[in-house]
Amino acid sequence: MHLPSTLGELKSSDFSESRVRFRSVKDELRQNLIGKLERRETILPGIVGYEDSVLPQLVNGLLSRHNFILLGLRGQAKSRILRELVGLLDEEIPVVQGCEINDNPYAPICKSCRLLIEEQGDQTPVTFVSRDRRYVEKLATPDVTIADLIGDLDPIKAARGGHLLSDELTIHYGLLPRANRGIFAINELPDLASKVQVGLFNIMQEGDVQIKGYPIRLPLDVMLVFSANPEDYTARGKIITPLKDRIGSEINTHYPLTVEEGVQITLQEAWLNRDGYESGVPDFILRAVEQIAFEARADQRVDKRSGVSQRLPISVMENVISNAERRRLASGEREIGPRVSDIYAALPSITGKLELEYEGEQRGASAVARDLIRTAVGKTFEAYFEHIDCSSIIAWFNDGGSIRVSDVDGAELCLTSLRHVTGLIDAAVQSGLTRRSEPNQLVAVCELILEGLHAQKKIGRSEERGYTAAKQEPRGQGFESFSRSRKIN
């Protein structure tokens, strides 16, 4: 398709229609959103779990042509949502060629474009800007200035052009004017200094600014969207009242409401397939990893105000796969088969994502993380083995049996030992999670059974002997404390 290259050609093209000529970016978003809703298309691809909560509020805000703010704890896809709004923009729009602020050829607002069109008329060169270049994002920090966001006077421009400093042609535009006819997003809004926030609400409502004391009319066409963490309102800063008053909609985000939703997000975001090797992550491993985040969000030792990011299960899952990959390389196996022991090996991807209360700090991040894993695996075990009799397994340990497994041994080597436990293989197969002909999966299910029985305190575990009869043991001891040994009893 040949796109117009001059203003004259533009006037003779499809872009000459009045609905396109002077349509604001908010009207553009609204009309494209209406089209998606009528066609029953996905509005924000990749956003999971918000279909009945956040998305309806977001759609209402866009249909109302509101500037809005997403309010929620860390790791709730706030930035992802803001960036996905680009998909509601037109694929391309015409602008005056060379303009810093994407001026509309039909209604330019910067002085240089107005002078250019007066001089060249229909021969004024135009170009087209894609939707991806119409999104500007800024992370708010205390050192951000009005000059960064709005602009400043440029003495070099004034000297080279022979202009007075009060001339509009001497302006060096900031990020907000450069987002003209697009979307401007500010993350962590409360971190902006109050005087900078004043500059924002002035241009949102009145469309004019003052740069170095010179009043300049700058009627920008921009959609302003923000994100913030509720804790930031008191911990680091606040949103000034006049700015809050000018934000049309305040939309609250949340963490996944079910484990299934969390699993879907983790599968979407985590890097699972490694160099052509299929990881084949069992469903119960996915659920156990996701359950860790749910347990952490409910644990009294974890700071609720900071939240537990959805990045935690994503990072844990990637570490689980990496440990299984390391085992494949060491044992020479063909497949990457994640197990419960790999979840304990992923402790480093948990501890750094937990903000602890006093009690948690006294225990230590590693001990808290091990407790969370044990509880999560225990609940996962209950979900799959609620109606399966494991009494023969418990009896075997009560009769003096013990078994130690290693997170570096291959599946066949582990099965040599696991088969000695009365009823263990039969219970694993009976669950329907595996078959006898699937060694990697079989070992993983057996580990789930052993760790689940330990979480229920029906069997014990010690560093010296591995899984044993139920006895009291030091608190906080995890799978990894004995799984480093390659010896299998």
Give keywords:
single chain; 489 residues; alpha/beta; five-stranded parallel beta sheet; two-stranded antiparallel ribbon; 13 strands; elongated; disordered C terminus
Structure, explained:
This protein has 489 residues and is α/β, with parallel strands linked by helices. It is built from 23 helices and 13 strands. It folds into 2 domains: 7-252, Rossmann fold (3-Layer(aba) Sandwich); 259-481. It has helices at residues 7-11, 18-21, 25-38, 54-63, 78-84, 111-120, 146-149, 155-161, 175-178, 194-205, 232-235, 241-246, 259-269, 283-298, 311-331, 340-345, 348-351, 358-363, 365-385, 391-398, 411-418, 424-430, 439-455; strands at residues 68-71, 92-96, 126-130, 135-139, 151-153, 171-173, 182-187, 208-211, 214-217, 222-228, 249-252, 459-462, 466-469. Helix 14 (283-298) packs across helix 19. The longest helix is centred in the middle third of the chain and has 21 residues, at 311-331. It is elongated and about 95 Å long.
